[in-house]
UniProtKB/TrEMBL annotation:
GO molecular function annotations of the record: electron transfer activity; heme binding; iron ion binding
Species lineage: Bacteria, Pseudomonadati, Pseudomonadota, Betaproteobacteria, Burkholderiales
Annotated transmembrane regions: 20-42
Residue ranges the record marks as coiled coil: none
Keyword Electron transport: yes
Keywords tagged on the record: Electron transport, Heme, Iron, Membrane, Metal-binding, Transmembrane, Transmembrane helix, Transport
Name of this protein: Cytochrome C
Length: 171
């Protein structure tokens, strides 16, 4: 009993083993919940706007710099006109689908060739009639110009396939 008195003098609010147990439990559990709360808070602030279909893209868009310049894979070698034609343009221009002027159909191409190479490139880049911009593809502007030259030349024109980026003035 005297022992008890002695202890009471030195140990603050924790007086029984049960209180010690509760205090120990709380001092262990409370920080864990605090940490969980912090983690939830931090990760929720990274969440994309509700309704975003592609969370990663939405996040990238939100953190992108203002006035960012898109660089398409600039290091790959540019494809030749014939290659681009076969990959993207032949779908319509080989068969004349959707009213496209057919490859090597001089009669169909002659009036178009007269408008000049630049005008044709612009049509191919921006789309014309049933043709989507870039014929629906995703090419370097120079590659499109090359495909235009390839197709026009097959129909009797004498355009040169551009070697270096002619893209700058095409914009
Ligand atoms: C979905 C079918 C389709 C695809 C694919 C397509 N074209 Fe065309 N293209 C057309 C049609 C249709 C026209 C005729 C448009 C008109 O005169 O209204 C046309 C016209 C053109 C013309 C003539 C434009 C003018 O000013 O008279 C060029 C040049 C041309 N295409 C280039 C291309 C190139 C290069 C590609 C591939 C990168 C391509 N096209 C892919 C359908 C297509």
């Amino acid at each position: 009993m005297s022992d008890n008195h002695h202890e009471e003098a030195h140990t603050g609010p924790i007086k029984t083993p049960k209180q010690l147990l509760v205090a120990g439990f709380l001092s262990f559990v409370v920080p864990i919940f605090a940490i969980i709360g912090l983690v939830l808070y931090v990760s929720s602030s990274n969440k994309p706007a509700p309704g975003a279909s592609n969370p990663e893209k939405a996040l990238a868009e939100r953190i992108q710099k203002v006035g960012m310049v898109e660089v398409r894979d600039a290091n790959r070698p540019l494809r030749a006109g014939e290659e681009v034609y076969k990959g993207q343009c032949a779908a319509c221009h080989a068969t004349g689908a959707a009213g496209a002027p057919k490859l090597a159909d001089a009669a169909a191409w002659a009036p178009r060739i007269k408008t000049g190479f630049e005008a044709l490139v612009q049509s191919a880049l921006k789309g014309k009639g049933a043709m989507a911009p870039q014929g629906g593809g995703d090419f370097n502007d120079t590659e499109i110009a090359r495909a235009v030259a390839y197709m026009s030349n097959a129909a009797g024109a004498k355009f040169e396939e551009p070697a270096a980026p002619a893209a700058a003035e095409a914009k």
